[in-house]
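Ligand-bound model needed. nickel (II) ion.
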Amino acid sequence: MLLEIAEVLNQAQLAKVNEILDGSEFVDGKLSAGRVAREVKQNLEMKKDSARTELLIRILVSSLAHNQTFNSAAFPCRMADPIFARYHSGMQYGDHVDDAIMGKSGPRLRSDISMTLFLSEPESYQGGELVIRTSFGISKVKLAAGDAVIYPSSSLHHVAEVTGGERRVALLWVQSHVRSPEQRELLFDLNQAREQLLAQAPRERSTQQVDRAFSNLVRMWSEV
Ligand code: NI
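Prediction:
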């Protein structure tokens, strides 16, 4: 499932993140790329700086922790430290799949879900769409600053060449309690129906049956 999530960061958080990035040093993105990705990757990534990086991670992780759409779609178990990237005019990132195992320096995790959080307004740069191949064809994603897209990490994807302006994004990888993308999608759909039933008719027998079925499916399919 490819899912767009609006306003992961509000305007104040977005301004703070961009202010921190303005004063940060960036290095060649090839340094963090796997063997295949290195050949096609042209971007800049924020150099890890303990105080600044920690503050950015705190802003991002705390906003995701409170985001209901993210939590009910991703079932996050572990998250890799985000990467903050910049693409100037002429930069792009060719077709690749993200590394399966993340976290070279810290605790390791399996990447089930990839997230791109857009940090620049779409009209401030040309090109730079995230292009994801799904089983239903190709999706081109370019969202408002503060919005994010999540998609299965197994998907082939690329970033189209930026032909003007600067594209800024945060990238994040999640190990999910529910490994299968199909099962996560079913749970996401069922949970939306469940939430609606709980709000409209909390005491109905059918509401309780849907609620129980949802909980027991999560129990059946999750790993901790
Ligand atoms: Ni990628």
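The mean pLDDT is 95.
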